[in-house]
Amino acid sequence: MYSVEFIENKLKILDQTKLPFVEEYINTDDVERISQAIEKLEVRGAPAIGITAAYALALSIKNSTIEKIKNNFYSAVNRLQITRPTAVNLFYAIDEMKKFFEENFNKKNLYLLLIEKAKQIHSNDINLCERIAENGLSIFKKKSNVLTHCNTGFLATGGNGTALNVIKKGYENNLIEHVFVDETRPLFQGSRLTAWELEKLKIPFTIITDSTSAFLMQQNKIDLVITGADRITLNGDSANKIGTYNLAVLCNYHKIPFYIAAPYTTIDFNSSDKSKIKIEERNKKEIFKIGNHKITKEIYQAYAPAFDIIPNELISGIITDAKIFSKPYNFINV
Ligand code: MRU
């Protein structure tokens, strides 16, 4: 099962807004529809967004006349890059596709070549998810109770996931006792998506509200915390789903290791530190309702950042497909 698949010249996207109750797919070759799927979080998670955008760019020239190829491709670039600002993987995939487009512009069958390039970005992600999981095994010093936030499994990537794949690998190696899953307000990626993946993997888990983690830590019920990241700057500051910073602060107070797991491509080599990260702000309506059920008045003021930033000093290690990095972060020489 994949979050995104390219089948019969269309993109097949598993609609994550319907999970865990309904497994429904969006089949489309339309760039506007794909862009909306990214904006609405029908497809989400940093690596999965990048892969989706790569296929969308290939599809943008599927039916183009020669005269319109460049225009259609760059209109798609412009549309896709305003979908979600924080995850660097989106911009990485767009840049890779742009470079490939320019290098091969005069070749026949450019559409097919772009599809092959998008498939390559996708299969790279599948491989590096496995390397992240293997590299992550060494963080378990004993059979552990782990807490995670948001969703970092196969739904969020092209392969088996990042932080959740470390947990999966740990479980397979008898190094996981139990997984605590933050529900992850306001869109519940934890209680809807991570829970659904853990159910499929048959890994024992318990859902908690985001505000329960401190109490569990106080009772010594958490051995370590692992989350993903959407963008990592050169000094190791890491952006991830809103609420992750709370966890890192709590871990620091309770002397619990806090790890990030992410592909090497989540490192933003153009950004020195957290001040350079653009944080996406979501529509406040998302915190005024649960599903379609209103929980408060829409006239109230609200603030809905999608991500927060964990300063490097709170991170015990960043598990990547290359290796586990720790302070002082030197990502360049691997
Ligand atoms: O808003 P989302 O659901 O796309 O946010 C996803 C996260 O914050 C994930 O932790 C991150 O993208 C890493 S996914 C492997």
TrEMBL record:
Catalytic activity annotation: 5-(methylsulfanyl)-alpha-D-ribose 1-phosphate = 5-(methylsulfanyl)-D-ribulose 1-phosphate
First-level EC class: isomerase
Superkingdom of origin: Bacteria
Catalytic activity, EC: 5.3.1.23
Residues forming the catalytic site: 230 (proton donor)
Keywords: Amino-acid biosynthesis, Isomerase, Methionine biosynthesis
Keyword Signal set for record: no
Residue numbers marked as site, Transition state stabilizer: 150
Pathway the protein takes part in: Amino-acid biosynthesis; L-methionine biosynthesis via salvage pathway; L-methionine from S-methyl-5-thio-alpha-D-ribose 1-phosphate: step 1/6
Entry annotated with the keyword Isomerase: yes
Binding site residues for substrate: 44-46, 84, 189, 240-241
Family: Belongs to the EIF-2B alpha/beta/delta subunits family. MtnA subfamily.
Biological role stated in the UniProt entry: Catalyzes the interconversion of methylthioribose-1-phosphate (MTR-1-P) into methylthioribulose-1-phosphate (MTRu-1-P).
NCBIfam families, per the entry: eIF-2B_rel, PRK05720.1, salvage_mtnA
Protein name: Methylthioribose-1-phosphate isomerase
Organism of origin: Stygiobacter electus
